[in-house]
Amino acid sequence: MPSSTSNVSIAYRKLKQAILENRLGPGTQVLEQEAATQLEMSRTPVREAMLMLQKDGLVEMRPRQGMRVLPITVGDISEIYEILEVVEGLAIRKLAEKPINEKEARALEDSVTLMDLSLERGDLSVWAAADKKFHEDIVKFSGNVHLETVFLQLWDRSQRARNMLLKAHGAPVNSAQEHWELLKFIKEGKAAEAVEFQKSLRAEAAEQICKMIFDVMGGMVPS
């Protein structure tokens, strides 16, 4: 039988995944007992998992009402992408100036190759996973553990909106080519060019997501 600690991890992972994939959409109310029954465990680990999700900024806890999935707002996305731009820009600069080694370059190339293949096959879930790994690896390879922690938290906070955009419009057709170009700058040690290029990509992505949110709910999806 799983331990209480492992049940907390299981509940946290499953509830978080449901939120990030919008199976538990913004505004959804989930009672502790309801979640415990679905996950086939007691309420205690579920409550602890919900508290962890609250710390992640994904839900709010309500007395005797379990958790409520927080809305996605234009303001949230604008602020998250503003910080992402800085965090990822610093990681890109550090990686380009190291410089990047052969093993790291190959890992990034593998991710972009997978993005290319998934676009051809129309497999959005594989594309999204490869895109995430590419950006995660850039931050990881920079060698700054604290940057990695901040980046992963911000990525999760913005993933719900990105998934909505993917569902509505599909993966960006030029995404793989843009990632190849960014990787080329990094491999050539052109730190300033790489940072500026990524800055423009992040700004464009934030604009698209904010427009989608505003079009759908006038600035909020939904409360």
Automatic annotation (TrEMBL):
Residue ranges constituting the HTH gntR-type domain according to the UniProt record: 5-72
Superkingdom as given in the UniProt entry: Bacteria
PROSITE patterns linked: HTH_GNTR
Molecular function (Gene Ontology), one example: DNA-binding transcription factor activity
Keyword annotations: DNA-binding, Transcription, Transcription regulation
SUPFAM superfamilies tied to this protein: GntR ligand-binding domain-like, Winged helix' DNA-binding domain
CDD domains: WHTH_GntR
Pfam name, any one: FCD
Keyword RNA-binding: no
Family matches, as PANTHER family: GLUCONATE OPERON TRANSCRIPTIONAL REPRESSOR, TRANSCRIPTIONAL REGULATOR, GNTR FAMILY
Record-given protein name: DNA-binding transcriptional regulator, GntR family
